[in-house]
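Recall the central idea of this unit: under ordinary conditions, the amino acid sequence of a chain determines the structure it adopts. In this exercise we apply that idea directly, starting from the sequence alone.
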Amino acid sequence: MSKHSSHPRVHDQNADTDASPFHRGEQAIQQRLGMREKIEDFGRRGIRDFMPEQHRLFFGQLPMFLIGSADRQQRPWASLLVGAPGFIHSPNPKLLHIAATPSVEDPFAESLRDGATIGGLGIEFNTRRRNRVNGQAVLHEGGGGFNIRVDQSFGNCAKYIQARKPRFVRQRSRPNEQRSVRRFTHFDGECRALVARTDTFFIATQFGDDPGDGRHGLDVSHRGGPLGFLTLEDDQTLLWPDYRGNFFFNTFGNIELDPRCGLLILDFETGDTLQLTGTAEVLWDTERDDPVLEGAQRSVRFYLDFGIHVRSAMPFAWDFLGQAREFSQAP
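Accordingly, the structure predicted from this sequence is:
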């Protein structure tokens, strides 16, 4: 793939996707790694077109929610919404209401409209729980947030989540509040320092070349690792290891068809965020002797197109509770 490629790849249209919860990109990756049949069976049981009761209750207790969206140029972005617990609630299993709107500098502010496809992720760092919900946005008359009409709902395992507990320490930002924002096309020293402190980020990807397919839409996913697992190769390129996961390969399946993606990097020390959009490629033949990639199944390289650095974007202070078990050195 060219570093500056921005066009979806063309794949065999004859793949068996009729009844599968996985689109042809996800199926191709599952087949490549020899687990297609096993994961298909698990996916048919675990991926629903409604939210189970425990997911609905879970979302309602969160102070933050992750969103994957695409801007007018169809570039994916990952965004963070915050509110007092209860700002999310589910009036029925097919609908999730979010009583928050993105800030003016967030690309999600322009892409939030009726019928827009979005991906959602609820994560509770202190309990290491996370659940996904993908669907379409439904706006409220007079504002006050928006709904997600559910197309897909499923849970993820607790792997690679660094345990933290948030505490509100600042007033939550109002939608039109002006904040300190930098826009950039190359990583500078400030970005480099933030990336060096990173052990958690989120990635938004899309399957968007077939609107008639029920699996069409956006997805946002968590990535965690030890400090240093996200590295800058140069002033426009990031690299990270991919560890053994749930084998759904939602993110990789989307990248297989469309390399465009968005990253959201959280700085738990300062409350800053980096929102990045660009393209990614999966490196299947990872050099195992590279210490950065220790324990990885493969790696991913990200090429930056555009970034947004918002200072003090998160209204939280974070109490660190412990490393993810997968990276803990404790016996």
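The helical segments are 24-32, 36-46, 53-60, 108-111, 189-196, 250-257.
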